[in-house]
């Protein structure tokens, strides 16, 4: 059990196991998993000192002996859908596949997504993510028909309310064909101007309008100085090749912003030539890729009466080896696209390790839940160093297999030196009317 943490500082967390890459000093012994042992002095909201274990003796300060337990930095979740979350009991996915999800969400959105409904579910999500240790989140916002004008003000209000605790970004979500509809794009542009976070996006797949639709989005993003974030080739069809189309367009236009491509599932079922060409193009165009391992495992290769043979995830190792910035994220939570999940990046990491083999060595992949998504989102993170906010996720694990063997529901999330509240109770969802 993790020892009790004082309610107020100053206090010393002695003998914490911190990833060497997160440690502000060098020269201390690094263990087989890539951790160093450190002492962390916390005073008020900030770290007052970070020192090699055993060297920060403060006789007047309360000492908590972590005895080699792992202390992680907070997480960054670059791809979520806070506007859809927790609608499962109201509208489930009868087939469990992608098309069943799309149809169910459309029905639920048209019937229920008032500002109040979206705001309540979004706030539940943010409290959950905060409790699990996330400090930054990007959500996609379904921007279709009248929903566009309902959801964006809600997002802006949540963003303001969570400022300083969770950095919240958002990208609009609509089919790429809709980029050719001037009225639709007028609404999207107006909402992003008023309430957006400088990120434009859409869902891309192999429709005849793909090139023209992308050109509209690239041109708008260039004019506004926005980044781009796409849902790309979320499919088992090897002919789904929009990742390369996006990368080629970025190169041709010398796009100056950041581009994040989510899913890219079909990349891992393409023939060797196409697979290589797409990866090379993504690397040259500086397109980052976020894999959504839990949602892909749920939706992809699902056929009634047949056991799945494919994990559904993109070629993350090959992308990383080619120099593409790669990361993993939560994606959907208890909605028709994914029936489970809890905006818990430690769960995403644990499942990512298993589904995508993000181990051997574990530490090489640790940036996929923090540094890589932060770069893709353009965020500057405070690390563990004297003067920085005392933000940590304390666990009972002492090595990576202990970290990934258990869910660590007993973790202690420290934000600005104080223990974060636990995740909200599901009973709240009943009271919010999100459950029939
Ligand atoms: O919400 C969505 C939309 C598209 N694809 C997903 O995985 N989730």
TrEMBL record:
Top-level lineage group: Bacteria
Keywords (A to Z) from UniProt: Hydrolase, Metal-binding
Database matches in Gene3D superfamilies: Metal-dependent hydrolases, Urease, subunit C, domain 1
Example of a GO MF term: metal ion binding
InterPro entries per UniProt: Amidohydro_3, Metal-dep_hydrolase_composite, Metal_Hydrolase, Metallo-hydrolase_Enzymes
Biological processes per GO annotation: cytosine catabolic process
Kinase in keyword set: no
Amidohydrolase domain sequence ranges: 209-410
PANTHER family: CYTOSINE DEAMINASE
Protein name (Swiss-Prot/TrEMBL): Cytosine deaminase
Organism: Roseiarcus fermentans
Top-level taxonomy: Bacteria, Pseudomonadati, Pseudomonadota, Alphaproteobacteria, Hyphomicrobiales
């Amino acid at each position: 059990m993790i020892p009790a943490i004082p309610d107020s500082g100053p206090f010393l967390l002695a003998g914490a196991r911190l990833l060497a890459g997160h440690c502000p000093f060098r020269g201390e012994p690094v263990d087989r998993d890539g951790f160093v042992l450190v002492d962390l002095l916390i005073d008020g909201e900030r770290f007052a000192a970070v020192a090699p274990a055993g060297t920060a003796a403060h006789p007047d300060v309360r000492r908590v002996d972590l005895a080699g337990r792992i202390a992680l930095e907070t997480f960054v979740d670059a791809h979520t859908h806070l506007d859809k979350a927790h609608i499962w009991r109201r509208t489930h996915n009868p087939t469990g596949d992608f098309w069943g999800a799309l149809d169910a969400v459309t029905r639920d959105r048209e019937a229920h997504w008032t500002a109040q409904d979206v705001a309540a579910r979004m706030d539940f999500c943010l409290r959950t993510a905060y409790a699990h240790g996330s400090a930054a989140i990007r959500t996609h916002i379904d921007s279709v028909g009248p929903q566009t004008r309902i959801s964006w003000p809600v997002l802006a209000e949540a963003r303001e309310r969570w400022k300083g605790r969770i950095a919240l970004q958002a990208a609009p979500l609509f089919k790429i064909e809709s980029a050719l509809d001037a009225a639709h794009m007028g609404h999207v542009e107006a909402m992003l101007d008023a309430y957006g976070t400088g990120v434009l996006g859409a869902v891309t797949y192999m429709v005849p309008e793909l090139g023209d639709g992308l050109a509209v989005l690239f041109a708008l993003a260039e004019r506004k100085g926005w980044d781009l974030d796409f849902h790309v080739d979320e499919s088992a069809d090897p002919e789904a090749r929009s990742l390369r189309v996006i990368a080629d367009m970025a190169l041709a236009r010398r796009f100056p912003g950041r581009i994040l491509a989510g899913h890219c599932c079909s990349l891992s079922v393409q023939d060797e030539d196409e697979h290589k060409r797409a990866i090379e193009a993504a690397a040259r165009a500086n397109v980052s890729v976020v894999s959504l391992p839990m949602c892909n495992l749920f939706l992809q290769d699902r056929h009634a009466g047949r056991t799945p043979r494919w994990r559904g995830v993109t070629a993350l190792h090959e992308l990383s080896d080619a120099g593409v910035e790669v990361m993993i994220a939560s994606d959907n939570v208890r909605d028709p696209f994914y029936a489970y999940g809890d905006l818990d990046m430690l769960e995403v990491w644990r499942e990512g390790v298993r589904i995508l083999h993000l181990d051997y060595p574990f530490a090489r992949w640790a940036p996929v839940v923090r540094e890589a998504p932060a770069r893709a989102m353009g965020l500057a993170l405070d690390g563990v160093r004297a003067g920085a906010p005392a933000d940590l996720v304390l666990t009972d694990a002492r090595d990576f297999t202990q970290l990934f063997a258990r869910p660590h529901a007993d973790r202690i999330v420290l934000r600005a030196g104080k223990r974060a509240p636990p995740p909200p109770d599901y009973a709240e969802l009943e009271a919010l009317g999100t459950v029939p």
